[in-house]
Amino acid sequence: MTAIGFIGLGNMGxxxxxxxxxxxxxxxxxxxxxxxxDAAVQAGATKASGLADAVADAEIVVTxxxxxxxxxxxxxxxxxxxxxxRKGALLIDCSTIDVGTAREVSAAAETAxxxxxxxxxxxxxxxAEAATLTMMVGGTEAAFAxxxxxLEAMGRTVVHCGGPGNGQAAKxxxxxxxxxxxxxxxxxxxxxxxLGLDHQKLFDVASKSSGQCWSxxxxxxxxxxxxxxxxxxxxxxxFTADMMVKDLRLAQDAAQKSxxxxxxxxxxxxxxxxxxxxGHGAADFSGIxxxxxxxx
Length: 296
Ligand code: NAD
Hints:
binds nicotinamide-adenine-dinucleotide; 2 domains; N-(1-d-carboxylethyl)-l-norvaline Dehydrogenase, domain 2; six-stranded parallel β-sheet; 14 helices; alpha/beta
């Protein structure tokens, strides 16, 4: 049993915290939302009065916060984790944030006497609930070895991607690829409709030939071929278009700073921004097929 301080008990952090409790760890939890904190306490966590209280006695701290500024504030801000946690504690940030902030916070943690990994996740709320997340980890070998057992209680696939920030790098590269491949898949199905080609027939071909990708085989953006995909429930998310825009922005920001050419990533960001800007940010990202068809 490990004493864990858990900060950020939202859609993802809530079920991840529950899985740590199920694995037998002792959790002291904190969230700005009283409802989220109460749900964690009902599941067996101890209620912390604030961020500092949550981490003061923890051997391991896990954060699952919305974005980079929240992570920076939680770790580096006044009364933040680096000032309040026990020296030698292992810090695990599972939030999806920009690579630069991840590396800056990790360096500050090391200077203050902590080991830290960035460990963003893929797999959505369903994966968080079922403890089947893919976890992409950046940090030293030693920090990764310490983090691994805790990460394995929340995820099924845990990959050490290299030094600090490399977990975030893997996450945004993967999600940029997903954003692009989903638009390509939507365009192919929308073209098939114009040509009088049945959705199922295109699926039968593309899922077994060179057009094959996750957006076709697991998350098909039209109803029918993959009964579990959001297309079968009116594009109820799943993974929201807002989240996709957030990750594509992070990818474009990283591409600009590093000098990488990502023209399709830029186009995907522009298209998803148009989709969310027309009031569909809470819909599943695969719902962009409606915009590509010209539906209102
Ligand atoms: P969420 O908004 O549901 O949860 C975030 C929680 O953090 C909220 O409950 C909020 O009250 C809390 N919070 C914010 N600032 C805080 C602070 N200073 N102290 C304590 N609590 C604070 O978001 P989510 O969907 O759980 O996503 C969390 C992270 O996971 C994001 O970075 C997101 O990009 C990433 N992610 C989400 C999904 C998904 O499908 N939802 C999938 C993969 C990755």
